[in-house]
Design goal:
This protein is mainly α. It contains three helices and no strands.
Length: 79
């Protein structure tokens, strides 16, 4: 619920009133791309690479979470 609320707040909060549908479509594109890439990435990292792959996967998730706050602040500041 928190993740969905955050995604909704970012996509609708950053969108100009006349372009909210375009922003929603672009946000949905990100989910579609992740559904294509994630299985391959997880298989490669976590199964093929073993323990080091899990560390890489954790680093990617951590980096995405840490970078989200400054990126959202930048987007709000420059919109």
């Amino acid at each position: 619920m928190i993740s969905s609320g955050g995604q909704w707040g970012i996509s609708m909060g950053l969108a100009p009133m006349d372009r909210q549908g375009q922003y929603q479509g672009f946000a949905s594109l990100g989910f579609s791309i992740s559904n294509v890439i994630a299985p391959t990435l997880i298989t490669l990292l976590c199964i093929e690479w073993g323990r080091p792959g899990w560390w890489v996967m954790g680093g990617l998730v951590l980096a995405a979470g840490v970078l989200q706050v400054p990126v959202c602040r930048w987007a709000l500041r420059t919109r």
